[in-house]
């Protein structure tokens, strides 16, 4: 069916939108990949801005928390599988591995293309 997006799992989940099933021909049964991330822009002449709080993954970095999967039965399961990271310039931006259903991300920016 449709793929719904919710927020507010510490309270009653609130739907904020969905992807209609007709947009996908291979996702009617299950997903094979989930992407979580952030994007910032820049140009050849203007350095890129900071991402998140401006800190690389650390205690001060921005957090994504309560990462969970919700099954067809509506039950929430913590995200505990191994993940791959894709980072374009790890000196400017980075993301930590997902551990304990959370990860930290960000960076100072300042990169040029």
From TrEMBL:
Domain Neprosin PEP catalytic: 1-112
InterPro entries named in the record: Glutamic_endopeptidase, Neprosin
Record-given protein name: Neprosin PEP catalytic domain-containing protein
Species the sequence originates in: Aegilops tauschii subsp. strangulata (Goatgrass)
């Amino acid at each position: 069916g449709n793929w719904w997006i919710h927020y507010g799992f510490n309270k009653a989940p609130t739907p904020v939108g969905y992807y209609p099933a007709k947009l996908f021909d291979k996702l009617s049964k299950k997903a094979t990949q989930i992407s979580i991330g952030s994007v910032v822009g820049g140009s050849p002449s203007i350095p890129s801005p900071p991402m998140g709080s401006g800190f690389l993954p650390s205690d001060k970095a921005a957090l994504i928390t309560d990462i969970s999967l919700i099954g067809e039965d509506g039950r929430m399961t913590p995200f505990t599988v191994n993940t791959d990271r894709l980072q374009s310039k790890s000196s400017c931006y980075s993301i930590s591995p997902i551990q304990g259903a959370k990860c930290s991300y960000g960076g100072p920016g300042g990169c040029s293309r």
